[in-house]
Amino acid sequence: MNIISIILLLWRIIILSCCYGAATTSAASAPIAKPNCTTHCGDIAIPYPFGIGPHKDCYLDEWFQIDCRHDNSTTSANYSRQAPFLKSVNLELLSIFPFNDYGVQSVQVKNPITFFSCEGKETRQPQNLTGSPFIYSRTDNIFIAVGCDLFARMRSDHGPVAGCGSICQNNADGDYDNCNEGNGCCQGTLLTYELTNLSIEIPSNSSTKSDPMGDCKYAFLVDHNWFANNLTFRDVKDMDSVPVVLDWMLNVHDYGERFREKPDLTDANQSTSLCTSNNDYNGTIMICVCPPGMEGNPYLLQPCQDIDECKGSSKCEVGDVCENLDGGYSCYSNLNGRRCTHFASDLACHFRTTSGRASKTVILAIISGLGSSVGVWLLLIGAWLVHKIVKIKKTIARKKMFFKRNGGLLLEQQLSSGEVNVDKIKLFNSKELEKATNNFSIDRILGQGGQGTVYKGMLADGRIVAVKKSKMVDTSKLSDFINEIVILSQINHRNVVQIMGCCLETEVPLLVYEFIPNGTLSQYIQGQIEEFTLTWEMRLQIATEVAGALSYLHGAASVPIYHRDIKSANILLDRKYRAKIADFGTSRSISIDQTHLTTCVHGTFGYLDPEYFQSSQFTEKSDVYSFGVVLVELLTGQKPISAVTWSQEKEYRSLATYFINSMQEDRLFNIVDARVLKEGSETEIQVVANLARRCLNLNGRNRPTMREVTSELEAVQMSRKPSISAEQNSEGVDFVEDDAVGHWDVESLSEVSASY
């Protein structure tokens, strides 16, 4: 901070102190649209970059043009309201949510309900948003389907998006209004962020037995807050559309030059709106915000206005005096001289040893003494010290606030209860991880997933780690975040990724894992890493290690643990290509006498146990089913869900179903990977394939346990050793274990990927 800035800061403090207790003048309401542009359509405000024509400078471009139409659908013959429509996608606009600093802005629109076999109802699909700045919000919407004994699904161009199944039980009262129970209605969460072109399907062979609603079935995407607080699914039948939330974002490559950018929110001009780029949604987007404590439309790139916190509500305790400040406010007590200054989420308090009147006298005396050079220097040094102390207090307060918001209290509760292995969990500080990752440099990114970004880092002691940084704070997911720490702290197995600690004092929580250098199993199976392919021997070794780790989790851990998301993308390979199971965010530990968990359905399409999907009861055999899919991937080298084209129509084929059908039709060796056929014997392949088929049995009781699976895979490995030795001896060559696959018990660095 230079001398001029210090003088200006000090002068500002003096002026505020002299004017202490005086009410600030409220500024005029901040503009939301450009000059001479319409600000409302009906009772809905239209802030820029949205705008109403005919002038093109009233809106950013044609995607944000609003068409204000007269809606004659109201029942009153003498009343016709105005309704705004997003002209580019022809959807009625219900609300534009306030601008925020989370990286995504949203609007609420009307989207059609998709009816099937409903008399007088047209079958319409959700509006196609491809190419627009809008996508259907994954976090704010849910998928609802209504009807008896049906399975409804929603797809996008990138594959399955959501699905759910319902039943209809006999009910004397005819109460079918609770979708959570799946009785006459079901709901599903969205599994991906790539939501632009959606289609809804309800197979025509769904049963209508005992359906109180007849043949009519319907499904729709809906704003979950609106659906939970307004109607039951029966009321929706009489509607043509329901509210849906669309996220919108500006691509920095398309719009970056139209908005000025500043480095951070600590700019000297705190009233200026800030436009920054944010890496999200697999691309670079841009968001503009007002500084904390300010309000206005940041996309107008005009000065934001201070929020007068002292006006209209009591921010301070009874008897205290409230004073509005730029970006915050302060509360002063005449009783004990205590002053608390609030800036956004930061709080700093101090006590004065003199009364308010005496403080003013001291300040006036300081002003009168500024003529002497000694007084000026002392004042500047004092101001600098005060600034540093306030800044430190603000930083400490922010860290405490983040720690509490990121689940720190919940983790402390787990630590005190003895459920967490304290020796395995270190609480890192933010500076330590910033230094390790070079301030989370883009060059350190190892992978990105739906929940966050993973960075490679080096700690002060030279250890290589993987740091998982969440995308944003989602309070509904804090329990999953803390749960992953609790689960991993209880596991001590060489084939499970080890957690080293976490950091909760940052804006978003951070998890620190051992570093795994060789990517995910799915990358090798699907040929994404072309320079190296897995041998049959390595595939057997990986399958045996994963099975052994799951057997340990189910039966040998201190408490039984169900992983609940076993897939090849969650199996990592270290430098010796040794398997490591990762991603325990949805895992659950249970008491020894429990046989299952009844939960909302979690998992990944293609790996999800059909029995669990129907009953919502997860057992250890559900993990067995998912492992069976991984085993089939190792045998065939194919994806769990793949697109195939039949008569110019794209369908998505389940690998598990395709594998079972091929075995029943005696076509196993037609689908086995070429390298497996070349290196493995028919007997070995047949044994492993039969084991996979048993794991994929639709009846969970008929599936083997993971302990049985491990024993059978180990037997296959043992049977290979004599044949391998015989081959080598016949050629007169001694067997030397390859460094790429051998020494499986050697301690190694760990790897990270987007699957952490």
TrEMBL record:
The chain crosses the membrane at residues 362-386. SMART domains: S_TKc (SM00220). Its main location: membrane. Keywords: ATP-binding, Disulfide bond, Glycoprotein, Kinase, Membrane, Nucleotide-binding, Serine/threonine-protein kinase, Signal, Transferase, Transmembrane, Transmembrane helix. GO terms for cellular component: plasma membrane. It catalyses: L-seryl-[protein] + ATP = O-phospho-L-seryl-[protein] + ADP + H(+); L-threonyl-[protein] + ATP = O-phospho-L-threonyl-[protein] + ADP + H(+). Residues 440-716 form the Protein kinase domain. InterPro entries: EGF_Ca-bd_CS, Kinase-like_dom_sf, Prot_kinase_dom, Ser/Thr_kinase_AS, WAK, WAK-like, WAK_GUB. Gene3D superfamilies: Laminin, Phosphorylase Kinase, domain 1, Transferase(Phosphotransferase) domain 1. Residues 1-21 form the signal peptide. The keyword Endoplasmic reticulum does not apply. One of its GO terms (biological process) is cell surface receptor signaling pathway. The keyword Glycoprotein applies. It is found in: Membrane. One of its GO terms (molecular function) is calcium ion binding. It is a single-pass type I membrane protein. PANTHER family: WALL-ASSOCIATED RECEPTOR KINASE-LIKE 21, WALL-ASSOCIATED RECEPTOR KINASE-LIKE 8. This is Protein kinase domain-containing protein.
